[in-house]
Amino acid sequence: MIPTPAPADTANGDDVLRLADADNAALAALLARYGLALERVAADADIPGSFWGDEEAGLVGARLLARPDTPVHSVLHESGHFVCMDGARRDGLDTDAGGDYDEENAVCYLQILLAGELADMGRARMFRDMDAWGYSFRLGSARAWFENDAEDAREWLRRHRLVNDDDTPSWRLRP
To answer: Max CA-CA distance within the chain?
Structure first.
């Protein structure tokens, strides 16, 4: 699984949950549990630290930057990178989170778990938003991947102590 963002003008991507319509206080509180600060960027500004550009969230150090039109799935995906990368990469973080295939899958799995911690998002909405945005999974949907093909991602997260045995976030960063 390698996520590929859809162009901003696609019809399918228009109905994803955006920062402007989300509970920003709950989202900021969730990110703060990892020592990550949510910083809002003006609606017409470029997003510093955005790897993909457009409305995609950005990472610079322990700051996650987003505009009102940034999808919440993008905020949670980039925060998943912050959690899953090792400390050395986190110390020099600016724009490119890096990581390998296994880590990318773990990030996607974690973003779904984190969505479950937000009343206005939840897992079901995250599955829909990931599919609408163009994340690609060999089983055809985010839900099918998560429920039937993500054991490797789950084990990666457990091995690094980022999730507990009951599939809940441990609220730890990878050392």
So the answer is: 43
- Of 20, 25, 1, the C-alpha closest to 111 is 1
Q: Which of 175, 113, 172, 122 is nearest to 146 (CA)?
A: 113
pLDDT tens digit sequence for 119-162 = 999 999 999 999 999 888 888 899 999 999 999 999 999 999 99
Amino acid code (one letter) for 155: E
End-to-end CA distance of the chain: 24
- Decide: residue 86, CB within 10 A, 0-12 exposed, 13-18 middle, 19+ buried: middle
The strand pair at 37-40 and 63-66 is best described as parallel
Other Cβ atoms within 10 Å of 151 Cβ, number: 9
Q: Give the integer Cα–Cα distance in Å for 125 and 127.
A: 5
pTM: 0.91
Residue 29 phi, psi dihedral angles, 5° rounding: -65, -40
Sheet holding 37-40, edge to edge: 37-40, 63-66, 58-60
- In sign, the C-alpha dihedral spanning 74, 75, 81, 83 is negative
